[in-house]
Amino acid sequence: MNKQLVWIRLSLAAILLTLSCSGFAIETYVGGFGTASLSCFSSDTADYVINDQPEGPGRTRRCDAGLDSTLGVQLDLGLNESLDFALQIVADRNVERNFKPDVTLAQLRWRPTDALTLRLGRMPTNAFLHAENRQVRYAMPWVRPPLEVYGLLPTFSQDGLEIINEGSFGRWQTEWHGGITRIAFDVVTSNSRETFPIEANGTFLNLTLRDRNTQLKLGYGYSKTSFTSADVEALFGALGALVLPDGAQLADDLAIDQAATHLFGLGMSHEQNDWLAMAEFGYRSIEGFFRDQYGAYVTLGRRFGPWMPYSTLARRWTRGPDSDSRAGFLQPQVDVLLASSRYDTNSLALGLSREITEQTTLKFQADWVQPDKNSWGLYYNHAPDYDYANPDSDWLFTLSLDFIF
Amino acid sequence: MSGIHLPLFLCARFIGIAITSALVLSLSVSVAAAEGILIVAQQDAEVTTLTREEAANLFLGLGSTNSRLIPIDRSEQPLRERFYRDVIGLSAASVRAHWAKQVFTGRGRPPARISKTDVKQVLNDKPGAVTYVAIDQLPAHSKVLLSTEQGEQE
User: Fold this and answer.
1) Model pLDDT for residues A284-313, shown as the tens digit of each residue
2) How is chain B split into domains, by residue range?
3) B52 touches chain A (CB under 8 A)
4) Taking CB atoms and an 8 Å cutoff, what residues of chain A touch B25?
5) What is the maximum alpha-carbon separation in chain B?
6) Per CATH, is B37-147 categorized as 3.20.20.480?
7) Do B57 and A173 touch (CB under 8 A)?
8) A378-405 per-position pLDDT tens digit
């Protein structure tokens, strides 16, 4: 059944159930958020994309309005003092190259005590400082969160159950988030329209510490991840079937089938006297052929009334084997597979935001991007003449208008 | 090795730019608002005092806030922005961004806003209501939980 239909039906069922329980004493809120954006990327040999997008500015087209443009609408139903329901639908460029809306939030929230909250349904992923609101660009200082860290989280939403405990520790407000989740989404193959599914089932535990000016976040998630594609399946089939002493074992080692996956995030944000400083580190490891990924960034900004100039320095780096001698005569193909997740790159972003109204912010950001040697960078749709051994640096310019309503 | 040298080079330049910017910008000293702010509640309210941290958490909807207290924001922009800066310690833009994040991640809704003319009635009608006023506009039959003129009441 269509996933959208399933969620809408579940949401309606939840609404009807809660309506009947609450005696129709309902507080209703409808609001939304969005970004209208245009980006131009200087590369002729690859596209700059975020998350699961199949194309972006660069090789496919020099300038593109689809990289960051988003529109989201949310319905909140306050059913009683401790129970509410939220449904959010967001349209942005998806894996099918269109802007078909997707359900990103469909949760029932119950707050039995001041310290305890339970959420059930579809809710935002929550490992990094701005992971929950990645699509609400109005609520963040940048045009988009640094891909070097936030690209480690390929989806915006997860389905499951979350328990939130709030308390205090000295001057700090503490917030523990723990839960069980399921994530399922499709990814498109580079330079192709072929898609393949990714599924992950797991648990997570996050801790946020806050005082008035500072926020610290520690996040950890563990899941079992499965994904494959036709090319990878063909290679594993050959490794397993051909007369190689360790071929079957190698195929098993490289496969990502119920593979143990670890995601770790550590972040800090501090704002005082109009200064804003943020820094985050992220790590993701998937058992199999995918390299371990590390990401980090530092952001510094300063408010001058409605203006805020800011700068971000970010890096993604990877670790993992470059080759495996067990592959025998298939070693070149295995080496290509092992190199496919070499995304090592550096970027420096310079940005300027200007509050137009209380609900509208205009932002301009210039990103200088330099992939490492022997790296694909965080790009997609590489051309045959992309210089993997020694990639060029490129510039991405983005003008965006973030708004809420 | 250039993959290691490049980020180190960028880091050094980035930190250099940041320090230079800080030195330059620190010369422009901001002038604190002269007018004080009172955080007030109904005279019969159970709560007697609030620290700045408690007030910030209450108005930002953070932590295990006492649910019997109902934060009420003010619609007058200058007063609101002064409250955010002097009591919560954040710019108005940061507070708006905070609430956008809370709302659109299904975590909560911002406090309702009232105007000056409604303060007295709201405090009378809602036993747990907590709002703020300019120091010379203390409503009758209300109690002060925190005054920015006198510092925190412990």
Assistant:
1) 999 988 899 999 999 999 999 899 999 999
2) 1-30, 37-147
3) yes
4) 302
5) 72
6) no
7) yes
8) 999 999 999 999 999 999 999 999 999 9
